[in-house]
Amino acid sequence: FKESNGSTDSYAATSQVDRLQSEPESIRKWREEQKERLEQLDANSRKQEAEWKEKAIKELEEWYARQDEKLQKTKATNRVADEAFYKQPFADMIGYVAAEEAFVNDAEDIFPGTEWERVAQLCDFNPKSSKQAKDVSRMRSVLISLKQAPLVR
After folding, report:
1. Which of 71, 121, 135, 143 is buried deepest, with most CB atoms within 10 A?
2. What the protein does (predicted)?
């Protein structure tokens, strides 16, 4: 048999009954109304949360449908553009961006010994303007030396 100095469950139950009996009627009534009000608020919040979840699921499905539709339109447009592009003459040679088109146009003026000059046009040889993390100074010096003294075949 174990003795306890603290309160037991039976003691807590009797003290609560004593407290409720000694409590005025207005406070007891307010407590009951408050409990009902809180239960009603909880039920409303659960209902509202369920409605929000349903609305969110519906909006998400609509968004996915719109995204899929956009993707399908983009794919179709790209396919048509690719077909039109590859039907052009010399399509395998036209795949350059606008900045490189001038370089391709200058390709007709190829003379022996000008290859490295054309490569140098594409390279940035200013060491201060390069914002790269890698050190490319050796490559830069190799390209400059090849520009000045091209290799002989």
Report:
1. 143
2. Clathrin is the major protein of the polyhedral coat of coated pits and vesicles.
The reported pTM is 0.37
Q: How far apart are CA 127 and CA 140, in angstroms?
A: 9
Low-confidence ranges of the chain (pLDDT < 50): 1-2, 96-99
Name the token pair of 134.
């890698």
Nearest to 127 by CA among 143, 113, 112, 114: 143
